[in-house]
Amino acid sequence: MTTCFDGIAALLEGQAIEVPSWAYGNSGTRFKTFGTPGTPRTVEEKLADAAQVHRFTGLAPSVGLHIPWDKVDDYDKLRRYAEDVGVRLGTINSNTFQDDDYRLGALTHTDRRIRQKAIDHHLECIEIMGATGSRDLKVWLAEGSNYPGQADMRGRQDRLAESLRTIYDRLGDDQRLVLEYKLFEPAFYHTDVPDWGTSYVQVAALGERAVVCLDTGHHAPGTNIEFIVAQLIRLGKLGSFDFNSRFYADDDLIVGTADPFQLFRILFECIRGGAYGPDSDVAYMLDQCHNIEKKIPGQIRSVLNVQEMTARALLVDRDALTQAQEDGDILLANEIFMDAFYTDVRPHLAAWREERGLPADPMRAYLASGYQEHIEANRIGGTQAGWN
Questions:
Q1: Alpha-carbon distances, residue 335 vs 138, 257, 261, 262, 331 (angstroms)
Q2: In the 3-class helix/strand/coil scheme, how is 93-156 assigned residue by residue?
Q3: Inter-residue contact 161 to 167 (CB < 8 Å)
């Protein structure tokens, strides 16, 4: 019940998946951060590694930065460096979860001085966006409470709205505020932005240039994420994805490894809703950490997984599916859907890449390039980049 690959080949052109700078640094669980040979020591080395992902896949033209992890004195110089190695600077991610002042909150804190400190950090990020040419300011807040009665939940929402308004009003005309949500962690009783509904309510009050970031790992078990995707597209508020995979909570594993069918379903809703392709302003990004596997191969595998499931989702015969749905033919509709998912597009994608001057097997090509051995041998000394 699928169309042939030739019919969707053109629709794969221009697919772009932003990689995060922090994916190339050391990371780990709450109990241990693991060091690996060849880990970048500077943001420039992170960009050089990210450029390898784009070189071998053609899918990752931009790199998201995290401030202050990627803070430099000259962002115009950093932008030029990124362009020289073959990528561009993308989303600017703020950080209000590693400062002692923010132990009880940042944008929601009862102390006006601390709230202003957090606001000023975001205003600094907006200035950086001007220098890097970035469109999106992504905000994730590690804020909430651990015990009933600890905090005034209503008051925190009011303060959050006020803080976000101040930040939003400083955006340029071509810039966006993207508010991410997370079910829990590090706060366990209540989280200030725990779900898509809370994020939607906050950004809807701000204006058209405030949208929601959907992290695929930030939901309760059994959540129908593709329904959330469809709803946010319908409301015009799906701004971006943070793609990763999870078995339990926010595992930040390689996207598509735990449940490739879920990734397929999500991407189908994007295609069906007009949130995929050159006319869409939805940003597709990775938000992953590679704790025990090598970083660059982990990112290569991730973007290839997204491309593969995009190709399968494009193969769904939507006309036949719509007819089956309207006829109430439950099993036929499911058959049409599953037929596309089960189609092995990997040989076709390999040929598609070769036609465009890319290696048929990006992973094997990278491993044979010698780059991994080079960075492991030469990145000696200095402080390896990481989460702290």
A1: 39, 23, 14, 16, 6
A2: ECCCCCCHHHCCCCCCCCCHHHHHHHHHHHHHHHHHHHHHCCCEEEECCCCEECCCCCCCHHHH
A3: no
Contacts of 346 by beta carbon, 8 Å cutoff, 6+ apart: 308
**Can you give the pTM of this predicted structure?**
0.95
Is the pLDDT assigned to residue 384 strictly greater than 70?
no
Q: Residues 297-314: pLDDT tens digits?
A: 999 999 999 999 999 999
Q: Are strands 27-28 and 176-180 parallel, antiparallel or unpaired?
A: unpaired
Answer yes or no: is pLDDT of 2 > 60.
no
Cβ atoms of residues 26 and 290 within 8 Å: no
Residue 154 structure tokens: 């209503």
What pLDDT does 67 receive? 98
**pLDDT of 73 above 50:** yes
* DSSP H/E element including 47: helix 43-57
Q: For 262, what's the count of Cα atoms within 13 Å in the CB-facing half-sphere? A: 21
Work out whether the CA dihedral 367, 371, 373, 375 comes out positive or negative: negative
Distance CA 36, CA 25 (A): 9
Give every CB contact of residue 7 below 8 A, 6+ residues apart in sequence. Answer: none
Q: Which is it for strands 210-215 and 176-180: parallel, antiparallel or unpaired?
A: parallel
Residue 180 corresponds to which tokens in the numbers above? 């991410």
